[in-house]
TrEMBL record:
Domain HTH tetR-type: residue ranges: 1-61
Annotated InterPro entries: Homeodomain-like_sf, HTH-type_TetR-like_transc_reg, HTH_TetR, Tet_transcr_reg_TetR-rel_C_sf
Protein species of origin: Murinocardiopsis flavida
PROSITE patterns attached to this UniProt entry: HTH_TETR_2
SUPFAM superfamilies linked to this entry: Homeodomain-like, Tetracyclin repressor-like, C-terminal domain
GO molecular function list: DNA-binding transcription factor activity; transcription cis-regulatory region binding
UniProt KW keywords: DNA-binding, Transcription, Transcription regulation
Protein's UniProt name: TetR family transcriptional regulator
DNA-binding region per UniProt: 24-43
Length: 209
């Protein structure tokens, strides 16, 4: 394992336990077994480290959506969206504790938003990517022409975020099940709401109502 990987693993552990606002670079470096100077050889600052930790140590979301977008017109819309939803639930469940600590600190939040903007990243990106996928499926006739891609993407990812958020407060067995189960229910409800025909999707014909 490389020095960079050890630092990222330590950052994920410390930030998960203490939250970003209370996680210092000194503490992260100590947990990794290195000096702060070594940490700064690999990352510009704590925000830079946090962003890379999100990208490389949390369940993949951006990559899953990118791959899904490339599948427009193949497979089933239902299956593709279920994969996106399951990935989103897993990502939000892991990212929420650290993200919440950012929002609670105004100056830290402002600095982090600026860093995300500079990198062309941010919480809006998954919505934009999912909306682009849905728009492509509408263009191919596999979703109803009246579908609002932006609204549908927001409804799906918003529901995934809420499910992940509630999982931090509710320890009932239902919330401990595989992310695939709630993902399937959310997608089924979304498709029914926009008037997509599940049977037509399974046969690859898509609804065009």
């Amino acid at each position: 394992m490389t020095t960079r990987d050890r630092i990222l693993d330590a950052a994920a552990q410390v930030m998960r336990e203490r939250g970003l606002a209370r996680a210092t670079t000194k503490e992260i470096a100590r947990a990794a077994g290195y000096s702060e100077a070594t940490l700064y050889k690999h990352f510009q600052d704590k925000q830079d480290l946090f962003l890379h930790m999100l990208q490389e140590r949390l369940p993949p979301l951006g990559d899953v959506i990118t791959m899904a977008s490339q599948r427009a017109g193949s497979g089933t819309v239902r299956g593709t969206l279920e994969g996106i939803a399951a990935a989103a639930i897993a990502f939000y469940a892991e990212a929420f504790p650290s993200a919440a600590s950012i929002i609670s600190e105004p100056r830290l939040s402002a600095a982090f938003r600026a860093g995300l903007k500079q990198r062309g990243a941010g919480p809006h990106v998954p919505n934009t990517m999912v909306a682009a996928y849905l728009r492509a499926e509408v263009g191919l006739g596999r979703l109803p022409a009246r579908t609002d891609p932006e609204a549908a993407a927001s409804l799906l990812l918003g529901a995934c975020f809420q499910h992940a958020f509630l999982g931090h407060f509710d320890t009932r067995p239902a919330l401990a099940r595989s992310d695939a189960e709630p993902a399937a229910r959310l997608v089924a409800t979304l498709l029914a709401g926009i008037g997509a025909d599940p049977d037509a999707e399974d046969s690859g014909d898509g609804g065009t109502g």
